[in-house]
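Hi team,

As requested, here is the filled-out complex form for the 3,4-dihydroxyphenylalanine run. I kept the field names the same as last time so the parser does not choke. Let me know if anything looks off before we queue the next batch.

— J.
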Amino acid sequence: MEQISDLQKNLLNDVESADTLEALEALRISVLGKKGQITGLLKTLGSMTPEQRKESGPLLNQLKNRIIDAVTVKKDTLEKAGLDARLKKERVDATLPVRPQTQGTIHPVSQVMDELAEIFADLGFAIAEGPDIENNFHNFTALNIPEEHPARQMHDTFYLAEKEESARKVLRTHTSPVQIRTMINQKPPIRIVAPGRTYRSDSDATHTPMFHQVEGLVLDRDIHMGHLKGCLEAFVTAFFEIDHVKMRFRPSYFPFTEPSAELDIGCHFDGDTLRIGEGDDWLEILGCGMVHPKVIANCGIDPDEYQGFAFGCGIDRLAMLKYGMTDLRAFFESDLRWLRHYGFAALDIPTLAGGLSR
Ligand code: DAH
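And here is what came back:
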């Protein structure tokens, strides 16, 4: 008994004089750990006579509990003291300048998509959407693209793995399948634009495997090429913010339009700057035409009653032309320096054309 109370006194002293959390923990382990002093004493209970055990057992347990309590209290005290010391040392300097806030910018592709939506909304068009993963029917067959057309071959189209050949899905190679989806689901008159992502297995300075297009479709009674020309002229002048544009419709071929054309707009170089609208050079900007009667019929609409025009245009290229970027690949590399340079500042007020030129 004498021994135990001496031991208790000594141990309590040791706990009291531990001056760091580490020292306290080391002490705790040396006393209460698996091989600790008190643990060792508790183990001796097994070899005692029942009388001895009756006397020593409660005393040893008491000792153990006293030390556990003392360690807990000391630990709390040391932690509080540590916090106080840190609070005293670490002061807030209210005179420091605020940290710069980095704000994201609107990607030129998003900016151009917003501009297109706004321009075509003014012309009475609605926005339509379709899935990026398409089936052969919407991406090819309904658009009158025959089975053997090169656009269907592996080198152009990304196919998704599928066992059944006929059910094979594709990453849409153009936004034209949205025309099909719209004509199947809506009754004419139809006036839509469909901006979105498109995919082809292609990569160089002017091609990326993922790129953006905007599709346009107008379907009504008595629609003719004059409407197509007027609409595209209004679009080009509004988009490039010019009063007049020299335009040329060059005969072309698309399976889903008849007749088909490509639209070139006049341009010239003024030193290093490309001026759009006037000049003796030509820039090809989109494909268009009168919707092929077979395509209209494929969607369950009578082509003798309704006609229309359609166009498809690369959005990334429009952005490059308007805002002066030269390498398409940079659009999708997420380089912050590029994004800060070419990105647009976001406005807080909600607006369709979301950005401001910086
Ligand atoms: N889908 C064509 C392409 O990706 C572009 C196109 C041409 C769309 C003529 C049209 C169109 O709607 O009428 O090359």
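Two things worth flagging: The two ends are 85 Å apart (CA to CA). The longest strand covers residues 257-270.

Thanks,
J.
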